[in-house]
Design goal:
Blueprint: H1 2-7, E1 15-19, H2 24-36, E2 42-46, H3 54-67, E3 75-83, H4 93-96, H5 98-101, E4 104-111, H6 115-119
Length: 133
Amino acid sequence: MNAIFRSMIFAPGERILHFSTVFGAMRKVIQYIVDRSKGLVTTLEFNVTYPITNDDLVESFANFLNDNERSDAPIRIALIDHISSLPGVVNPIQRLIPLPSCNCSNVCQKGAPGYYSSIFNFSRIQTAIKFSK
């Protein structure tokens, strides 16, 4: 993820979307990009408070995206936790990933290593994942 984020070329006004439960190292990479851009790139943090049902999480995320949609500040990349670090929760990414893909160029999924990461079938959501040059 570090290499992906740091190799991207961001345009002024673009935003990086991430969950509030993002892994600490990724939060630092995102902050590095913002700092390096001298504030021309900003972050958009989706605040997650657990416990929350999968249905409520998906609905809340969809509402958050709608409330924060701005043509002058597009979301360039969204980092979505599959398995959050603190607390360790498996999020319904099959339902979350398609949501920002309508509004941004790239969607990345981050999962903590372990059992759930190894059994996840990405082919079920591959049509929702888009990559730009």
